[in-house]
Backbone:
DNA sequence: GTTCCGCATGAATCGATAG
DNA sequence: ACTATCGATTCATGCGGAA
């Protein structure tokens, strides 16, 4: 199967208009958060965040297949002692555009940013909002089932005294019994809570999320040969994972530095599928 | 220290008016979910949930001390393939009332209820919305510290000379203090993700949450002798935990069956603090 | 070749200080 | 009074060099 990776330089709001409608199976993205990444993206004012984002979601709604899914990784910042409400407002406004707010997954970041404040603990989770065009959408649950062996192995490895105390679990005593239950099964369906640590040691490029995050959703909502879109490509994690999993991919970013970097890396690892086409660097399969 | 537990039968919207303003240190509650438990609470239509709840939050704002905290355990139901938006709308409307939306904790339910749906995984988390009247509120973070992660055991067992030297050179006169911090540090501050298993041992009544959930927040936001309110008492978990932790408590419920049950149980375990007063069953300490 | 340890570094947040 | 900048605080993780 031929797989294509397309990298586009420019503003998503404009460049998305060049994409064909009903052509994308999964949109997975992590847009620049309000007031974050100021040095690269210029920083979006929290109070204007919804207005800034809505024209883009309008286009995303157009390019997504009716059976497709949009996963939005986002988290509101704390400002002036309060959580900002732009994410809530965004959800409500997107529904007016026609999006269905199907589910909210939680990404539990085990290694959250350190710090201490008198009125707040460390923020260790982010939202993964699932939107759909239609009540009927493709979902391949079996693809992300957790093999019991690996799960139990990893779990048991971490099952130290401190873990027990930390979890303060009242059912700790019943843990052995549960393990026994799980061992008999081959695989287990996951829940809507995703446990992953952030990668924080990449020198050249700091990815917003670890590979496992897009990987999980790409497996869950697409099959080989499907097409994945990331309108805020950044360091290109979504594209590289899509490529690895034999999905077509389209990435857009306004920062030429990211564009060049992803282009080069996609090219070097997968050159035989890649060719330049016009002003876009892209690879079209037959 | 004398502790009182007060149990009130009736509609929260009315009965809350009998409570004195600025008298409560912590409100912890899990209101009846929209269209859930309709056999007991009559079922609140999801579309009217906000309208139903706002008069109550108005009263809660009145009775809460300026230094107090309101923790609302809630989760929107999935209806017609979509997550309902009444929680989002509630947050926005409560801010208009004057509430500050300080934080959103996640309760990760480690053993969520099993089940399988074609378009959705098991729901393993709930929101714990924190609201405050004022930017300055009481928070006793040390009360809920957790054991440090395993990595520290291996890493910190041998605190070397280089560490001390580095610290000395950096701080100069203040040497020793920081080292002590690290050597004696066996506990760290938690994050805004709370890991607890759901309890499933209550036969007669299904408690909405395990003891550990109110316990965590009562320890975090109150001291002994403070007063905790649960306007949707249910089986009375919040009250029993408050009593155990030597906090005064007030519970309201419209279901006489719950009222009688909590009354009896509070009475049996703590009768020496308890006496009936007029139409309310209550215990007033001097 | 294992295991161990030093080290840098994160989508953070607040309060104080400065313009 | 309001915005902009800065220092202080803190913990899990993986890489790379050392034992």
Residues:
């Amino acid at each position: 199967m031929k797989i294509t990776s397309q990298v586009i330089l420019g503003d998503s709001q404009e460049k998305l208009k060049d994409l064909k409608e009903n052509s994308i199976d999964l949109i997975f993205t992590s847009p620049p958060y309000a007031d974050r990444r100021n040095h690269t993206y210029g920083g979006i004012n929290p109070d204007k965040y919804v207005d800034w984002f809505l024209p883009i979601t309008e286009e995303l709604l157009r390019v997504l297949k009716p059976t497709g899914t949009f996963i939005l990784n986002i988290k509101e910042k704390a400002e002036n002692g309060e959580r900002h409400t732009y994410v809530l407002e965004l959800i409500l406004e997107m529904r007016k555009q026609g999006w269905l707010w199907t589910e909210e997954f939680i990404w539990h970041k085990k290694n959250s940013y350190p710090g201490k404040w008198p009125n707040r603990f460390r923020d260790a989770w982010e939202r993964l909002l699932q939107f759909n065009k239609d009540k009927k959408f493709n979902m391949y649950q079996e693809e992300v089932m957790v093999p019991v062996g690996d799960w139990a192995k990893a779990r048991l490895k971490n099952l130290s005294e401190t873990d027990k105390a930390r979890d303060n679990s009242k059912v700790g005593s019943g843990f052995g019994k549960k393990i026994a239950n799980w061992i008999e099964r081959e695989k287990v369906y996951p829940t809507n809570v995703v446990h992953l640590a952030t990668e924080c040691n990449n020198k050249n490029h700091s990815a917003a999320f670890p590979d496992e995050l897009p990987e999980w959703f790409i497996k869950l909502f697409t099959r080989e040969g499907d097409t994945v879109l990331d309108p805020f490509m950044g360091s290109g994690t979504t594209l590289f994972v899509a490529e690895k999993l034999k999905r077509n991919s389209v990435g857009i970013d306004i920062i030429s530095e990211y564009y060049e970097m992803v282009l080069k890396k996609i090219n070097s690892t997968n050159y035989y599928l890649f060719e330049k086409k016009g002003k876009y660097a892209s690879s079209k399969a037959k």
